[in-house]
Design goal:
142 residues; Fructose-1,6-Bisphosphatase, Chain A, domain 1; 6-stranded mixed beta sheet; two-stranded antiparallel sheet; 34% strand
Length: 142
């Protein structure tokens, strides 16, 4: 589980740096929920997926931008769901934005499927929330 939190921490660090150094702009796509995407939404999503993959212990992950399980490590033990940049539509107004994570234990019967049918909120085994601003803060629940 520590490796999952380490991956999240590295992603949060990289997202904070990206937000400090880059402007945001709309792209010509929308997510699965019909919301217009910012380039920052896509970039932060990629940062998190890559960091989770590097842990070697995350089986799959899903996000607001990609709301189906993306297999990262076939032998992994965990599933992570996340909102890569909650509040991204107000990031240019210098309002607080953040990332939200939930960690689930992979169910043994879950083969290589692209959904989380049968999972409930009671099965969340860990969580984290990061807030980006003048200082980046992260709260971890274990």
């Amino acid at each position: 589980m520590q490796k999952v939190y380490d991956g999240i921490l590295y992603a949060v660090r990289d997202i904070a740096e990206h937000l400090r150094l880059n402007l945001t702009s709309k792209v010509e796509t929308s997510n699965e929920f019909g919301e217009m995407q910012l380039d920052t939404d896509i970039h932060t999503d990629n940062i998190i997926f890559e960091a989770l993959k590097k842990t070697g212990v995350v089986y799959a992950a899903a996000s607001e931008e990609i709301p189906y399980l993306k297999i990262l490590n076939p032998e992994g033990q965990f599933i992570v769901t996340f909102d890569p940049l909650d509040g991204s539509s107000v990031v240019d107004a210098n309002f607080s934005v953040g990332s939200i994570f939930a960690i689930w234990k992979r169910k043994p019967h879950l083969g290589e499927v692209d959904h989380m049918l049968g999972f409930t909120g009671k099965e969340v085994i860990g969580a984290a929330i990061a807030s980006y601003g003048p200082r980046t803060c992260m709260i971890v629940y274990n």
